Amino acid sequence: xxxxxxxxxxxxxxxxxxxxxxxxxxxxxxxxxxxxxxxxxxxxxxxxxxxxxxxxxxxxxxxxxxxxxxxxxxxxxxxxxxxxxxxxxxxxxxxxxxxxxxxxxxxxxxxxxxxxxxxxxxxxxxxxxxxxxxxxxxxxxxx
Length: 143
Fold this sequence. Notes:
- The chain is of the alpha+beta class.
- The chain folds into 2 domains: 3-34, no CATH class; 46-135, 2-Layer Sandwich (GMP Synthetase, Chain A, domain 3), CATH 3.30.300.
- 30% of the residues lie in helices and 23% in strands.
- Helix 1 crosses helix 2 (105-118).
- Pfam families: OsmC.
- Belongs to the OsmC/Ohr family.
- This is Peroxiredoxin, Ohr subfamily.
């Protein structure tokens, strides 16, 4: 086993034994109804969970960067996730947009690059070929 598991800062476990149409949960914590994004059933899907995970991680990292530079917290992150492909070759496309108000665009780009390299979820996605990050002054759809 990887020895980095020996001294973690935090651990959690997510459990799903019901599949896409059911529930996923964290013992003694979060419990969410899950649903396929291609139907109208109520519930959360993997695409939504991924977008929330990445947007929260990037935003928390940006907040720390702003604090380190003695800047007010003005950043906002939006993450778009697309489900593409066909049976046996499905993929996610993930596109994060980062907006930092109150600083010039070059500074916002530098903060975006730093957040992208510090956020653990971003690091996890970085070499997938399906993940992009951009600094924006206005949010748009990634089409």
